[in-house]
Amino acid sequence: RVHGSLLVLNELMRCSNAQWERSYEDLMQKLQCPVTTPPSDSVSLLPRLKSPLISTKTRQSTASHTSISSIVLANNKSNPEHMLFESSVCRSLMIEHFDDVCSETLAQRISRSTHILQTLLAILPRLAAFNKEKFVKTHLNPTMVYLLTTLRGRDRDRATAFTTIGLIAVAVEDHIKPYLPKIMEIIRASLPTKDTPSKKRTSGIEPTVFVCITLLGHAVKTLIKSDVKDLLEPMLATGLSPALTTSLRELATSIPQLKPDISEGLLRMLSQVLMNKHVRTSHIPGVSASLSSEPQEIASIVLALRTLGSFNFDGHSLLQFVRRCAEHFLNSEQQEVRLEAVRTCSRLLRLAVESSSSRH
C-alpha cells in the first residue's frame, strides 16, 4: 500500500511541474542516462478540462503558486514527439498539501522495502524543485542527512542516491553549499587513490558517482572548482569510460576555468589508448598486428576515437592523432573501429583547416 501511494504521489508531482521535468530530461540526455517516461495511456489519466492548452511561457508569467486552469503542454526540443503535460488540478493539489506530502514521503526513510526506497529517491528531487523555498527551509536538512547516510552504506540504493543528491543540488542551487564538504568527502572516498591496485581502479566504480559530480557542477559551478580540480586525477585513474568522458565534457562547460586541466588529463588518457596500440589489419600487407580483437579492447578504442572527435580541445594540436588514425585505425578489421576513425579524422582535419584559415 505504501509503495503504491508513493507511486501515485510521484506521478502527481511529475504532472505538476512541467518546467522541472523538461530540465530533468535535458540533463539526463546530456548525461546519457535513461529517462523513465510514462506510457502514452497515462495522458488519459489527466483531468479532462475544457480550457485550452497553453505554453510554459504563459505559465511562467503567472504567480508560481497560483491555481492554473489549464493543462500545460511543454514540447521537448530534443524529442518533438515526446510531450510533457502539466495539470492545473495536480499542481493546485500539490500546492495545498505540499508540507504534508513532504512529511509523509520523508517518513518512509525507515522502510526496508527496496521498492519504497527507490520511489522515495525518485520523488525527492521533484519535491525540492516544486517549492524550493519551503523545501529548503523545512525539509532539505533531513533529506540530506538521509541521503548522506545512504551513501555511506553499501546497499543497493547507494548508486541511485548519488543521482538524487545531484538532482536536488540542481533544484536548490546554492542552498546545497553547507552539504558540499560531506558530499565531496564521500565522492573522494568512492574514487581510487594512488595506492589502489590497478585492477581495482576500474572495477567497482559506480557511474553515478560521475553523474553526481557533473550535476553538482551544473548546480553550483565555480563553488566546487577547487574540489573538482583535486578530483580530476582520481577520476582519470578509473580509466576511460562513457560516464567519465561525459562528466569531463560537462564539467569543462560548467567550470570553464578547469577546461585546460580537463583537456590535458583527457588527452593524456586518449594517448595511452590510441598511441600505444596497434590494430589488426587485413587490407595492407606488412602492417603489424599486435592488438587482440577482444570486445573490451575494441570498445575502448571506439570510445577513445569518439571522445577525440567530439571533445573541444581548444589550443591543442591533434594532427598527431590524425596520422595515427590514418596509419592504423582506418585499416582495422573491426568495422566499428574503421567507421569511428573516419568520423574522427574528418572532424579533426576540418577543425585544423578552419583554425588555419582563421589565422590567415
TrEMBL record:
Q: Name one GO molecular function term.
A: protein serine/threonine kinase activity
Q: InterPro entries under this entry?
A: ARM-like, ARM-type_fold, DDR_Repair_Kinase
Its GO biological process terms?
A: negative regulation of macroautophagy; TORC1 signaling
A cellular component annotation (GO) from this entry? nucleus
- PANTHER family noted in UniProt: ATAXIA TELANGIECTASIA MUTATED ATM -RELATED, SERINE_THREONINE-PROTEIN KINASE MTOR
Its recorded name reads Uncharacterized protein
- Which organism's genome codes for this protein? Homalodisca liturata
